[in-house]
Amino acid sequence: MGLGLSEFDLIKRYFTRPTPGCVLGVGDDAALLRVADGMELAVSTDMLVSGTHFFADADPYLLGHKTLAVNLSDLAAMGAQPRWATLSLSLPEANEHWLERFSAGFFALADAHGVDLAGGDTTRGPLNLCVTIMGEVPKGRALRRSGARPGEDVWVSGQLGAAAMALAHLQGQIILPEAAFAACAARLHQPQPRVELGLALRGIASSAIDVSDGLLADLGHVLDQSGVGAELAFDALPVPPALQAGKGLSRARPAPTKSTPVGEQAGVGAGLAREASCAGQSSLLIRCILSGGDDYELCFTAPTAMRAEIDRIAARSGVALTRIGVITSESACIVRAEDGSVMPITEIGYDHFRY
């Protein structure tokens, strides 16, 4: 049942606060923003829909975090400094407990990245959350998808597959051990946008994208816009310890702590596939790693001459950066197994109008 809040009460109570980075923030017909001299404005919009992007009973605090996090991830991929956001909410009812928790999660992450909520909209309807994020990047220095060149390295931050495995567990496709599920669920519900990494990669990476729909799908956008192909080594792909330690999935292995060249993870990915207790688990794990999505890591390319600098960025940031392949002049992306054979790929990632 509704709690008697009007639309304007709701906005004032839960989403209005000082906005020092705005000329004018929430409360008028439009916000007024001032972009610093020498900067370009980077703008991105993402929508989260109940039943498509999250379960209807999702923890509102974590949902507030994720609503902003997926947008911050887009700016990270552009090497942009987040500054402002707008938030539009379609709500079935004005539930004060839900609103208090959602706004707390949203603003906790906004404060961590210096983001002002500059405006938005509310309406009654099916639960639907939409953020437009805005940031600044020095003129001509934004990371784009179109800069990859043959011979360059392909890198990825963090680990892949945990969020997709958590979703598979929730959907009953697999049963993860309790500790493994808890670790994977944290990656699904509370992703950490790689904003500082994106800033550090300006002038280093030749192209970048965030991994939201799956590694192969998102890297594919880079390849299409750059007019190149890629060859990836499956055994080099970084896999979370929670999946490596899961009974029937693989033996335990520590997570990488620094940038790691292709092949130097001693067959982690191939080991997972080889040691899976059954073919079905192996196939599911491979799909989660290559095309599961919801990782919100950065996939980027860089000249081989930048390897030492990328090592230093990994050490400074504390974020593992793993070299997973090479850009080729071919038009396709292939993934090689540990024995050098080309792996058959049946799914490359999520598409809202195909699934």
Q: How would you describe this structure to a colleague?
A:
The structure is a single chain. The protein is of the alpha+beta class. The protein has two domains: 7-138, 60s Ribosomal Protein L30, Chain: A (2-Layer Sandwich), CATH 3.30.1330.10; 153-336, Phosphoribosyl-aminoimidazole Synthetase, Chain A, domain 2, CATH 3.90.650.10. The chain is 34% helix and 21% strand. The protein has eleven helices and ten strands. Helix 4 (162-170) packs across helix 5, helix 4 crosses helix 10 and helix 9 packs antiparallel against helix 10. Residues 245-280 have low confidence and may be disordered.
Give keywords.
Phosphoribosyl-aminoimidazole Synthetase, Chain A, domain 2, 10 strands, 355 residues, 60s Ribosomal Protein L30, Chain: A, six-stranded mixed beta sheet, 11 helices, 34% helix, alpha+beta, four-stranded mixed beta sheet
